[in-house]
Design brief:
Elements lengths: L1 H72 L12
Length: 85
């Protein structure tokens, strides 16, 4: 009779340990999901910022092209001077 109680106690301990490990894994999985969401949010923000920078640079390029064209038309800048520093 004593052995049955000891075996039941051992099974209880194993069950409790298994439950604790399952809870730890659940917590870890939630943490990984949180990390994935943060990575996606950061990626979206980065893409938005890069798009805004690209658009700004395109506008600046157009302005520089117009300035260079005006300088060429005025005879101040020769086409061969473009790209020289």
């Amino acid at each position: 009779m004593l052995k049955e109680n000891e075996q039941l106690g051992l099974l209880d301990i194993i069950s409790i340990m298994s439950f604790i490990i399952a809870l730890m894994n659940l917590d870890e999985n939630l943490t990984q999901n949180d990390k994935q969401e943060l990575i996606e949010e950061l990626s979206n923000k980065t893409n938005l910022m890069l798009t805004e920078i690209h658009t700004h640079l395109e506008v600046q390029d157009n302005k520089l092209d117009k300035i260079m064209e005006a300088l060429n038309n005025a005879g101040i800048l020769q086409k061969t001077d473009v790209g020289r520093t």
